[in-house]
Amino acid sequence: MRGGASRMKIRFQEFDPYRFSFEKDPVLVLDEFWSPQERTYFQDAMQRSTWKALADMPETSRNFPNCGNWLKAEIGELERRVFLDRLALPCIMDYIESFPNVKQRHVTSSYYTYVAGDCLSLHADTDTRYSSDPRGLEAEKRLAMVTYLHDEWLPDWAGELIIYESKQDREGKQVFEVSYCIPPQPGSLVLFTVPRLHRVCRVDPLAGDHKRLSIAGWFMTEH
C-alpha cells in the first residue's frame, strides 16, 4: 500500500471491535462477516424486492454516466434491523461520536446488483443530499460501507472496489494513486472513512450471468 495508507483485513471472528480505531486504520475489511446461511437470508429478501435501474434514476445516471445499468432496491424493515444489529460495533459508534456537536445520527443502506458491464466511476461521497431532517440540517457522511452477498466471485470477473489517494506531481497536477484494491469477497464487509476517492471496477463479461450482490450505504451525522 502506498503513501503510508493503513488497512486492517481480518476474519470477523478474530476481530476486536473494542480495540480497533478508524483514526488509525481508515479502511477495514472483515472477512466472513456473514455466514452462507445469512447470505441466503438476504438473497431471498432481494428476490422479493422492487428494483430500479440506473437508467430510471435521472440524477444518479447524470452523475455516473457510462456506468452500465446496475440495479438498486430498498431494504425491507425486518432485514434492515438484522443488518444494523450486526453492524452495531463499538468501533463504529466511537468514530461517529468523535465528531463535535452532532444533532442526529442515522444510517442509509440499499441493495445493489451489478452484472457484466456495470461499474461506478470515481467519486468521494462528499454530497449532502441524504439528510432526513425536516429542519434542513446537512448530513455528513462519516463511514461508507459495502458488504457482499453473492456466493461466488472469481478474480477474472473484476468488480473490485478501488480506493485512491489524490496527490500532486512535480508540475502541480493532480494525480491519483491506488491505495487499496479490494475484491468483492462473498460474505465480507468493507468500511472506510469519508471523504475518500473510490470507484467500482466494471464487471467483466467473463462473469457471465453471475451477479455482484451487495448492501451499501453510509453512517451519517447531522449538525
| CATH topology tier name | Jelly Rolls
> Which CATH class?
Mainly Beta
Task: Please tell me how large the radius of gyration is.
Answer: 17 Å
How far apart the termini lie comes to 34 Å
Overall description:
The chain is of the alpha+beta class. It has a single domain (7-222), classed as Sandwich (Jelly Rolls), CATH 2.60.120.620. 16% of the residues lie in helices and 35% in strands. The chain has 4 helices and 12 strands. The chain has helices spanning 36-47, 58-63, 77-86, 90-96, and strands at 7-11, 27-31, 51-53, 71-74, 104-114, 120-123, 139-148, 161-168, 174-182, 189-193, 198-200, 212-222. The strands form 2 sheets. The chain has an 8-stranded mixed sheet, covered by helices on one side. A 4-stranded antiparallel sheet has the order 6-11-8-9, with no helix packed on it. It is globular, with a radius of gyration of 17 Å. Mean pLDDT is 92; it is low at 130-134.
